[in-house]
Amino acid sequence: MSADANLVSFVAIGVLVGCGVTLLLERSLSRVLLGIILIGNGVNLLIIFGGRSGRAPIAGVTEPERMSDTLPQAMVLTAIVITFGFTAFLLAISYRSWYLTGDDEVPDDLEDQQIVRRAARKEVSTADLGGEPPESDPEQVDVPAPWQRREEGLG
Predict the structure, then answer these.
(1) pLDDT exceeds cutoff 80 at 65
(2) Rounded to the nearest 5 degrees, what angle is found at the Cα of 99, between the Cα atoms of 96 and 100?
(3) Do the Cβ atoms of 107 and 64 come closer than 8 Å?
(4) Is pLDDT at 3 greater than 60 in this prediction?
(5) Does the pLDDT of residue 149 top 80, yes or no?
(6) Do 67 and 55 contact (CB within 8 A), yes or no?
(7) Other CB atoms closer than 10 Å to residue 138's CB: what's the count?
(8) CB-based contacts of 17: which residues, under 8 Å, 6+ apart?
(9) Angle of CA points 31, 73, 87, to nearest 5°
(10) Helix 29-50 crosses helix 70-101 at what angle (to 10 degrees)?
């Protein structure tokens, strides 16, 4: 780690990432967006503190042993651009959700709710949307009928 990093810096990074993860677990897209931004800034600080500090890396002006490490700076610049693009994408989704529904909360998926209800009632879905016969359907796992198991000696 760099000599400029201290305990307060790492506590600040931990607080940023911790608050970001907490916000990321919310249902509101605006809070998810704030969580992404906080996590991105925390990780960027961690990368910056991981590099060697020093003078500006300009050849001919600074001696090579006193130059700062440029790789973390390049990585952070790339991460800033990626975070900016992701932020713009989440803002667009959040605005679209607010425009269509009046809020930016992520609703439960209807199919997920149906699956939960079926699981609570211990029902099995009988819909086969593939259209292929059961013999050639690789996703269909049929349990042999009780009379077939008796004939085969399985149970």
Answers:
(1) yes
(2) 90
(3) no
(4) no
(5) no
(6) yes
(7) 7
(8) 38, 39, 42, 43
(9) 20
(10) 180
* Residue that is written with structure tokens 């990585």 in the block: 75
Answer CATH for 3-110 from 1.10.260, 1.20.1410, 1.10.10, 1.10.287: 1.10.287
- Model pLDDT for residues 73-124, shown as the tens digit of each residue: 899 999 999 999 999 999 999 898 889 888 888 887 888 888 888 888 877 6
Please give the structure tokens belonging to residue 5.
């990093």
Count CB neighbours of 104 within 10 A: 20
Q: Please, what is the Cα angle at 54 between 53 and 55, to 5 degrees?
A: 145
Other C-beta atoms lying within 10 Å of the C-beta of residue 33: 20
The ranges assigned to domains in the chain are 3-110
